[in-house]
Design a protein that fits this description.
This protein has about 425 residues and is α+β, with helices and mostly antiparallel strands. It folds into two domains: about 325 residues, no CATH class; about 60 residues. It has ten helices and 19 strands. The strands form three sheets. Strands 2-5-10-3-1-19-17-13-14-16 form a ten-stranded mixed beta sheet. The longest helix has 26 residues. The radius of gyration is 29 Å and the shape is globular. The model has no long low-confidence stretch (mean pLDDT about 85).
Length: about 425
């Protein structure tokens, strides 16, 4: 056999082997046509506030029931179902969940509150728990909201078409000022629920959540100064805190650096109150610093601005002393587990802890006001009523504290009477 014929035979054999290998590869390796389609972008961002009231010793007070501002009438609500108001030591306010997509798609969403009761939501949910027919327990447990499937649609910039109107003065309008997708629930069969659309999912709850920050306050009666000591009782470092004091048209604002876990036997981390400045100049500066911290924590700039605009009156213009701080993500996930299916490529949850500080001076002023309520002189009685009304939604926790600690029988009786009128007479 010639060398040329031998080479041709080898080449033919090699070609056959290559064809066989290609065929086997085609059988074992999925083709591009069989690959799952790209579902596109799914990014989820969330923000909200956890509010508590603490006395001068850092004890969280029960009765966190009332809201500062009315929600739009279309928001769904459930009652307390006989829960002990004393056990409600924290109020989870305005968590809003934004979705960002590059094409229409459907996801399923559920949020749980193991140590609380989810009380408000919008849009409608497929189911919630515990059912109203369940016999109430002394403390809330096992609550959930299950939206089931919701439709996400990219929204045109600055478009509010299809959304329910809200009052021009409603903070709800600020929450919509983002680039998030439209979220639509429904319709349900047999017309039980018509389609409801918003730019986010909204929910709110009450609970017995053990928040990481404790604030103790002491006053110098001679100097008229207030000192705060901050204790991080959690396992995670708190990235920092903001101290806000509002009084007589002024705001004092200061920052506190990162707080590592703290032993309660230590002296805590001292926090200064700051220098008072007029609200007109101090509020914008305070909002800017808080918004910067929210962006650093992962929110988009428009989301951070929506949050501080929504809470401007409550955070920065309401009389009182408060401490704001960012709650560590593990604490958030444990307090309100959120499940989204399919899982988003990015999930950011930024929650602000808010501690309202009931100072000894405020407690003394309210006790005096309770005494003066019995005066027949309008010049004495009217200012006393104003003093108590200015407590706003903190009224029940403060009155509970005074009822349990005051040594004056008249003060205790009047606190009891006011609590009865609010429905808050449980122990």
């Amino acid at each position: 056999m010639s060398r040329l014929k031998r080479h041709k035979g080898l080449l033919a054999m090699l070609g056959s082997w290559l064809l066989l290998a290609a065929a086997l590869s085609a059988l074992l390796t999925p083709t591009e046509a069989a690959a799952p389609p790209d579902p596109g972008k799914l990014i989820v961002h969330e923000w909200g506030t956890f509010l508590s009231v603490q006395d001068a010793d850092g004890l969280a007070l029960g009765g966190m029931i009332e809201s500062e501002e009315d929600l739009p009438p279309f928001v769904r609500e459930r009652g307390l179902d006989g829960l002990s108001r004393l056990s409600l030591i924290s109020k989870m306010e305005t968590p809003v969940t934004y979705f960002y997509v590059d094409r229409p798609r459907t996801v399923e969403v559920r949020v749980d509150m193991p140590k609380g009761l989810l009380t408000h939501w919008f849009p409608a949910v497929r189911s919630f728990g515990p059912p109203r027919t369940v016999r109430p327990t002394p403390a809330p447990t096992g609550s959930f909201l299950d939206w089931g499937p919701v439709q996400l649609t990219p929204a045109p910039p600055n478009s509010l078409a299809g959304l329910r109107p809200v009052a021009p003065s409603s903070p709800w309008r600020f929450v919509r000022e983002t680039d998030s997708a439209l979220v639509t629930f429904g319709p349900l069969p047999r017309g039980r629920t018509l389609p409801q659309t918003e730019k986010f999912l909204f929910y709110r709850g009450l609970g017995a959540l053990d928040m990481p920050l404790m604030v103790r306050s002491t006053e110098s009666i001679r100097c008229g100064t207030l000192s705060l000591a901050l204790y991080n009782r959690g396992l995670e470092t708190l990235p920092g805190a903001f101290v806000v004091s509002v009084s007589k048209g002024n705001i004092a604002f200061s920052t506190v650096p990162a707080l590592v876990p703290t032993c309660l036997r230590s002296g805590g981390v001292p926090a200064s109150i700051g220098r008072p400045v007029p609200l007109a100049t101090g509020v914008p500066a305070a909002k800017r610093q808080v918004a910067d911290a929210l962006v650093k924590a992962g929110l988009y700039r428009k989301e951070a601005e929506a949050m501080v605009n929504n809470w401007e009156h409550s955070y920065f213009r309401t009389e009182g002393v408060r401490v704001l701080y960012l709650i560590p993500r593990p604490t958030v996930d444990q307090a309100i587990p959120l499940r989204i299916t399919p899982a988003p490529q990015e999930l950011v949850r930024v929650m602000v802890g808010r501690v309202e500080v009931l100072t000894a001076r405020t407690q003394r002023n309210v006790e005096s006001a309770l005494l003066n309520l019995g005066s027949t002189d309008p010049r004495v009685c009217s200012p006393a009523a104003v003093e108590i009304a200015q407590l706003g939604r903190l009224k029940e926790p403060v009155l509970r504290r005074i009822r349990s600690t005051s040594r004056n029988a008249v003060v205790k009786a009047r606190a009891e009477e006011l609590l009865k009128g609010m429905g808050g007479v449980s122990p």
